[in-house]
Write a structure and sequence with these properties.
This protein has about 140 residues and is of the alpha+beta class. The protein has three helices and seven strands, in the order αββαββαβββ. The longest helix has 18 residues.
């Protein structure tokens, strides 16, 4: 490849990247292992601005307990592809709530886990009961 074609290739790459930077970004909730506890309010994490600017994508799995009243507690990151997505994921889980347990029903000691995928390109949702996609 000669120098001129290399310059043209790099220019085309920059043009493509600048066009891609204007794409709509999504945060997609992919998995929820909440058992019988149904979410009352599901908060979706905010896509970090610096991640958008740097075109970063990632995945965070957060595990937590749900108390009798439906509040989340003991929120912890189980796995993460990039630390930049951890704080928004934790804040979203802390702001979410579940249905309270009926009187007399025992509280399960099983942790609930939720995986958030931070994706720059929109994803088609095949089953709305399992996935949640929103624009930041």
């Amino acid at each position: 490849m000669n120098r001129r074609s290399a310059i043209v290739t790099v220019a085309a790459l920059f043009a493509t990247l600048s066009t891609m930077a204007q794409d709509v970004s999504d945060v997609t909730h992919m998995m929820d292992d909440s058992g019988e506890r149904k979410p009352l309010q599901t908060v979706v994490p905010v896509y970090p601005q610096s991640a958008l600017e740097n075109r970063l994508q990632g995945k965070v799995e957060v595990c937590f307990n749900v108390d009798r009243e439906g509040r989340t507690s003991r929120v912890a990151v189980r796995s993460s592809s990039n630390r930049i997505f951890e704080k928004p994921s934790i804040l979203a889980i802390r702001a979410s709530s579940y249905t309270p347990l009926p009187a007399g029903k025992p509280l399960s000691g099983i942790k609930t886990c939720r995986t958030f995928r931070f994706l720059l390109d929109p994803v088609a949702i095949t089953d709305p009961s399992e996935d949640l996609a929103v624009e930041p």
